[in-house]
Amino acid sequence: MTIFHFFNCAILTFGPHAVYYSATPLSEYDTVGTSVKAAVVYLGTALVKLVCLATFLKVPENDIFDPYQELLKALIGMIDVAGLYFALTQLTHRNISQNHKFQAVGLGWAFADSVLHRLAPLWVGARGLEFTWEYILQGIEANANLVLNVSLAALVSLMWLRKNKPRTLIPIIYICAGILSTMPSMTSYLRRGLGWHLPKVVGFELFFSLVMAFVSLQLVSACQRPSV
Amino acid sequence: MTRKLNGGSHNRRKIKCQTDLDIVYSSLKLIKEEKEGTTNRSNKSSFKLQQELSFLPSMAGRKGHEGEMLESVYSVLALVFILVACVELCDAATVVDVYRLIQYDLAGTPLGSRLAGVNHHAGSWPFVSSADLSRTVVMMPVRDVNITFLKEYITNRQPLGGLLLLLPQKLIGEKGGEMEGGLMRSILTELEHFLIHTNTPYPVYFAFEDEKINAVLSVVRRNDATGQPATATAGGYKLVVSTPEPKKLASPTITNIQGWLPGLKGDGDSNQLPTIAIVASYDTFGAAPAISVGSDSNGSGVVALLEIARLFSRLYSNPKTRGRYNLLFGLTSGGPYNYNGTHKWLRSFDQRLRESIDYAICLNSIGSWNNELWMHVSKPPENAYIKQVFEGFSNVAEELGVNIGIKHKKINISNSRVAWEHEQFSRSRVTAVTLSELSSAPELLESTGGLSDNRDFVTETAVFKSAKLVAESLARHIYGYHGKKIKIFSDDSGLAVNPSYIRLWLDLLSRTPRVAPFLSKTDPIILALKKELSEHTVEVNLQHEVLDGMFSFYDVTKARLNIFQVASVTFDLLLLLVLGSYLILLFLFLVIATKGVDDLISIFRRPPSRKLKTA
What we know:
The structure holds 2 protein chains of 2 kinds. In chain A, 78% of the residues lie in helices and 0% in strands. Chain A has 9 helices and no strands. Chain B is 43% helix and 19% strand. In chain B, strand 2 (103-106) and strand 3 (109-113) form a beta hairpin. The A-B interface holds A 1, 4-5, 7-8, 11-12, 15-16, 19-20, 22-25, 27-28, 30, 46-47, 49-50, 53-54, 63, 73, 116-118, 120-121, 123-125, 127-132, 136, 184, 188, 191-192 and B 1-4, 6-11, 14, 84, 87, 89-93, 232, 235, 238, 240, 562, 564-567, 569, 572, 575-576, 579-580, 582-583, 586-588, 590-591, 594-595, 613-614.
C-alpha cells in the first residue's frame, strides 16, 4: 500500500516530464541528448550554487525570514540563469530549431531539479506507513517547476539567442526572466515571512508559473512574428 | 527552505561519493600499475580482480581510463542505491510509551496477555459487538470502560486485534475530588483483578492519556460514529508496536536486603542479645509491570522501615543510648508470591539467630489510613509476646490519637497461600506481627501495588504516623519504658521523625516499578535501597535467591507504540486514477497544442506511419 503511494507520488512528480517529451515534437527530433546535457549542466550549476550558499550564507538559527540573507540567496539563484545560458549557447546541440532547443533544455533542467530535490525525500518519506499530503503537494510543485523552468529557458533563449526581436519587448523579457529566477526566494518569503502553509504556497506556485508560462508564450510568439 | 535543506543533503552525499570514489580510484590505480609491469597471466588475474571490484565488468579495461572512470561511477551508484534501500523508515506521527499487560503462567495455566506485537487499525469504544474486530485495536479509556461487557467479550474469546487501555494521568481529578478518585480506584481494581486472572489471547497495552493520544482517540471516535469503522480500505489510524515475541524469563531472581544494628552487650554477658526484626517487602505485582509502582503496597512499608532504621541508627551510634537488643532490618522480595523471599531469607538464618529473634514487626500497606491501623497476628492474642507488643502499640497509638486493632488469623499449614508476611515467620516458629491498614487478609496477587496504587492515594502523614508509632513503641520496649509517657521521638527534638525524608523516599518509590522478576540483581532501586540501609545500619548485604513456586513470567513489559495516519487503498486507487487521467489529458493537450488534432488522430489510427515518419 505504501509502495503504491510512493508509485503514485512518483508518477505525479516525474510523469509530466515524460509526457511533455513524448507529446511535443521534442520526441520527433530526438532531443534527449540535449536534455541530458542540460541536466548535467544543472548538476554543475547546483554544485556551484551550493558552494556559494555555503560560503556566503549563515546557517539560519531560527525560521525567521531574513531579508538580507534572502537577497543574497536570490542573487545566488541568478546562477541558474547563467547555467541555462551556458546550456543554451555553449553546448553543441544537434541541429534543432531554437524553439525545440529551449524546450529540451528546460525539460532536462526541470527533470534534473526534480530528481535531485524530490526523489530522495520521496523514497524515504512516501514509503512510510504514515500518510501525509506532503508528497502529493511536492509532486504538484514539481509540475509547477517544470512549467517554470521551460518558461525561464524560453525567456533566456529570447534574451541572448534571438537577435531580431521587437525593441519594446526587451525590458518586459528581462523583467519576466528576473521574476522567474527569483521564484525560490518568493516562495521562501511566503512560507516563512508570511507563514503560509504548504498547500497555499504550492497553489500559488502553480498559479504563478502558469501565468508566467502564458506571458512567456505570448512573448515568444510575439518575437517570432516578424521573422515569420 | 526545503530547497536549501535538500541541497545540503545532496552535498553530503556528494562528499560521501567523493570518498568512495577515491577508494575505488586508488584500487584501480594499483591494478593498472600491476597490469603495466607484468605478463599476460597477471594481466588476466588483475582483470579478474577488477571484475570482482566493479559492477560492470564488461566495461572494464576496454575503454581505458574513461571506462574505469565510468565503471567506478557505476559502482558508487550501486553503493548509493544499496544504502538508500536500507534506510529505516520510522517516522510515525506519534510515538507513545505503552505498558504491556503482564504475561505469566500460574502453575502451568497461561494468564495475562499472550501476545505482544500489534499492527492494526485503531477502533474506539464502544463498539458494536457484532462487528469484526479481529484486525482492530480498540482504544478504551479506563474511565468509561464497561467492565461487564469487556469481561464477557474476553471470556467468550471473541476476536480482537488488540486492546489499548488508556489510564488517566491523575487518578484524583481536579474537579471530582475524593469521590471520583475512589470510584476510579474501584474500577481500576476490578479491571486489574479481571485482567490478571484471565487468559487474554491478544495483546493488551496500557497507556497514559495525553494530548497526542486524546487527539487520535477523538478522530477515531468521530470516524466510528459516522458508521465507518477503520479497516484497511477506509484509512484512519494504524497502531504499530513492533516487539519481539515475548520470551519466558529463565529463573527469575529475587533479592533480599538486610542490615543490622547491633545492640550493646553488657560486660561479661556471654549470652547472645535478643533481636527484634523489622521487615517490609519491597517488590510489587500489577497488571502492567512497567508501571507497577506500589506506593502503598508496599512502598509505604519500605519508607517507614528506612525511617525507623535512620532513627535507631542515631540512638545506636552513641554507646550511652545503644539498647540491649539487636535490630535486624529486612527488605524482602517476592512479597506478592506468598512471601517467597521472606521464606528464603528465614531459611538462610542459622538456628541460633532464628531463636534469638524475640519478635518481628512486618510493615505492609501503611500509607493511606486515616485513623485505624490493624495488627495482624497468627498466634492467639492471649500469647504473652503478642500481648506485650500490642500493648506497646496501643499505648503509643492512644497518645498519637489513632486506633489500633488486633486481628487473629490462624495459619493453615496445608494451604500454600501465605497472606501476611508474618505468617512466614510464624511457620518458622518466630513470633511476628504485621502492621497494616488492611483489615482482612488479601487474596493472592491482591493489594500488591497494582494500577491504582500510586502516589495520589498515599499520604505522608499516614506513613509518618506509622513510622512514629512503630519507632516509639519499639524504643519504649528496648529501653524498658513500658507504660511510661516518655516521648523519645518527639517532634521538636533532634530525633523527630523526618517528614521530608519520608516524602522523598515515597516519591522515589512511587516512580520506580519494582516487579521482582523484572528487576535485575543490580537494579538501581535495589542498589539504592542497599545504599540507604548501609547509611544507617551495618553488615548490609544482598541475598539473591531464585523465585520458586508456580510462577513463570514473560518479558516485554514496555514498548513504544507508533501511531500512523494512513490512507486507504481506495484512496490510493482513486489517486492513481486521477493522476492517470491528468497525464492523459496533459498528453492530449500538448499534442493538440504543438502538433494539431490531425497528428493526434494519426497516432491512434496508424501507428506504423508514425514510425516511418520518425525514421
